[in-house]
Amino acid sequence: MPPCPVVGGQPGGCDALATRCLRDKWVFIFGTSVARQWLFTLVALLRLSPYCIPLRQLQKEACGSAFPGHSKCTGVCGCNGVVNRTRLQFRFQIDLLDPHLRQKLLEFARPNTTAPDLVVMTTGYYALVLHKDFRAWHAAFTHFGLQLRDLVVQVLRAQPNMTVYWRPYTPVTDAQVNARIEKANRLMRGLWAGTPVRLLRVYDYAKARLRDYDDNVHHSQLVPVFLRQLLV
Predict the structure, then answer these.
(1) Does residue 2 belong to any structural domain of this protein?
(2) Cα(91)–Cα(76) distance, rounded to whole angstroms?
(3) What angle do CA 22, 214, 19 make, to 5 degrees?
């Protein structure tokens, strides 16, 4: 994965690509605080800001935080706005599939409905990180995985110009947790096989750069590199 310069509108840099490739587009991101970092980095890139790693506390104040209780923000907390003619929207999504996500996807699938041009999804991440037993996540996958896939495929049939990316679960600084994450990523990769959903390449690069993490989960320094995959 090539490096991605992010400051000052450099030729081929992420900020220059973002302002060109995402102009007049609507980008919708589902996920946890890890995905929330993607939204704020996009904001910085679109503003051609020299500070592309926004403080997490500012992100929490703007978009909310899922703690305590881990479900406080599901389908409720989020933020949106327009930056340099690009509409950006983020929604906390903790469970693999729940009524809030189902409702939003069904809204996108309605005929003659304006929908995002680009959707980035990561759902079900907390169950992997917070529960030592992989069976908790696997039970949700068994129950909801095919439903999630079918809903997304339904959306893409109704919105042929939409691009949906699945962002695989990123590693943490705990090897035991990463073993669960790798199992889950294999299952999700199989789930999306044969569908138009595109899988981002994040896990291996992040695992090789764990030393650059902000804490055990977040990796703000790596996000500009990952975002380059959207800017094509």
Answers:
(1) no
(2) 7
(3) 10
Q: Is the pTM of this model over 0.90?
A: no
Asked if residues 101 and 46 have their Cβ atoms less than 8 Å apart, the reply is no
Beta-carbon contacts of residue 112 (< 8 Å; ≥ 6 apart): none
Does 39 reside within a domain? yes
Q: How many domains does the chain have?
A: 1
Give pLDDT tens digits for 100-133: 999 999 999 998 899 999 999 999 998 888 888 8
Q: Where would I find the H helices in 47-120?
A: 56-63, 99-109
Q: Are 164 and 198 in contact (CB under 8 A)?
A: yes
Structural domain includes residue 162: yes
* Tally of CB atoms within 10 A around 200: 17
6 belongs to a structural domain: no
Q: Which of 105, 95, 84, 103 is nearest to 28 (CA)?
A: 105
* Domain ranges, residue 144: 14-230
**Alpha helical stretches, state H, 47-121:** 56-63, 99-109
Q: Could you tell me the CATH number of the domain that includes residue 59?
A: 3.40.50.1110
What angle do helix axes 99-109 and 134-158 make, rounded to 10 degrees? 20
Length of the chain: 232
